[in-house]
Design a protein that fits this description.
The chain has one domain: Alpha-Beta Complex (Ribosomal Protein L22, Chain A), CATH 3.90.470.10. It is built from 3 helices and 3 strands, in the order βαααββ. The chain has helices at residues 19-29, 34-42, 47-67, and strands at residues 8-15, 76-94, 100-116. The chain starts with 7 loop residues before the first strand and ends with a strand.
Length: 120
């Protein structure tokens, strides 16, 4: 597999949302321009997941502007975006007859990679 050169990337680790819920939102914006992706995230019905992904996307845009000061943000698109499962917090809930049931509070890691595409 060949190495791709990315303009910028951003990672949010230990985000307090399950990776399954977050993947539903990231699938909507994969391979889209960042302006279009921000609009999709703003009007998404999955508010918690879309706000977490939007925060990482805005960080990646800011990283691109820092790395290449004269870059045109309108030409940036999301080349890769994925969500990995982080560690889970283990909690318990009281159950009948003195037992306990385990609750897993899941965390996730969100990765965003941006590239520049000329000639829209």
């Amino acid at each position: 597999m060949e190495e791709q050169e990315f303009v910028a990337n951003a990672v949010a680790k230990y985000v307090r949302i399950s990776s399954q819920k977050c993947r539903l939102v990231t699938d909507l914006i994969r391979d889209r321009y960042v302006g279009e992706a921000l609009t999709i995230l703003r009007f998404s019905r999955k508010k918690k997941a879309s706000s977490a992904v939007e925060k990482v996307l805005r960080s990646a845009i800011a990283n691109a502007q820092q790395k290449v000061p004269n870059i045109d943000v309108d030409n940036l698109y999301i080349s890769r975006i994925f969500v990995n499962q982080g560690p889970s917090w283990k909690r318990f809930r009281a159950a009948p007859m003195g037992r306990a049931h385990r609750i897993l509070k899941r965390l996730s890691h969100i990765h965003v990679f941006l590239e520049e595409r000329k000639g829209r």
